[in-house]
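Much of our argument rests on the idea that a fold can be written as discrete symbols. This step matters because it turns folding into a mapping between discrete strings. The record that follows shows the chain in one-letter code together with its fold in token form.
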Amino acid sequence: MKAWQVTALGEPVDVLRLVDVADPAPGPGQLVVRVLASPANFPDVLMCRGEYQVKPELPFTPGVELCGEVVALGAGVAGFAVGDRVLGGATLPHGGFAEYALLEAASTFPAPAALDDAEAAALYIGYQTGWFGLHRRAGLRAGETLLVHAAAGGVGSAAVQLGKAAGARVIGVVGGPEKAEVARALGADVVVDRRAEDFVEVVKAETGGRGADVVYDPVGGDTYQRSTKCVAFEGRILVVGFAGGRIQSAALNHALVKNYSIVGLHWGLYQRHDPAAVVECHRALTALAAQGAVRPLVSERLPLGEVADGVQRLADGSTVGRVVYVP
């Protein structure tokens, strides 16, 4: 089969190679799927650079989430059959940027009928992260104000939709007018172009000086530091990631005097600590998709030959929504 492989560490466009490799074979508890769609995610970028907490041995095929059609079952797999349309996280080194990939049955789910292949593939990591972050970690309530950074990106766009579905008032922060239009289309009540406006001042003005009840921050660095200036009394700042490239330090005295919470979110740990909650989350997301309340924003559908370019553009911060490999 054809697959993209990382053969050395560096920028995606420099280290990804499209090669012929053997089809994966399922081990116990595993599924082999024909890849129907696989989105580019920031962990793919970080793994290419060798900067992610998961460091697969070289060479490996990235593509951490996908939608696929089951073609083979490993020993002990129950609940799935050849021909099923499923989604889940790929088992590296056999990731989604290939013709076939490997999944663990325990973390594989039926693909929602309401979504096409590219949309279903993008429902897994970003939306599960958003659901656990907003509901389980931050306890977002209807009527609260939710501030979402990088609101036109893959992770941020999911948080905007999930926040609206929960009844929150959503303020989205983006970089540039094109991304501002995307955030508005997603349903954000207020959109801030950080290149033209100070989001701290906008949040204060829109909330009568109170601030945002929940801040959803996949960027980190200065974005986090500025967010502490506009978080509400008893607000919650969700630390989701560090796409901005710098891991901030939290001033705990500031959290004390302003009475806000700094909440970490590592969604992947739920697979180990509370797998039943992951199943329940997928049920909830499937129901929201059926209602039309959430739909992953797929901005580009790329053939296999253009995957490296798409992953590099994600690394460079020039993409909007999800860039998805679709055979």
In short: The chain has two domains: 2-123+296-325, 129-268. The chain is about 30% helix and 25% strand. The longest helix spans residues 275-291.
